[in-house]
Amino acid sequence: MHIWNYFWAFKSFLDLAKGNKAYIFIADYHSLTSVHSKDTLEHNKLRLLKEYFALLPVDTEVIVYEQSKVKRINDFIFSISVSLILASVILIVLFANALSNM
Length: 102
Description:
Order of helices and strands: HEHEH
Strand order of the largest sheet: 1-2
Radius of gyration: 18 Å
């Protein structure tokens, strides 16, 4: 983990995790475009988890999901994609209404 990753992404995750459940999702499918060795991929995932666990508060309950181990991940991705599209359409309509009321 580099310093910018810590301040721009991980610090807010740490703040939210204090006394709460922390959900870590390891998106390992897209790393297959650059990592072709199973051993290297497993090593990288383990290193990532060690970095996260080393910095999390002691009272944090951690739940880890690995993308490659989630059954029916394509259904999950489709659901998220549809939700994002619907949210975008709603924001566009709200924005258009706000402009028309100006």
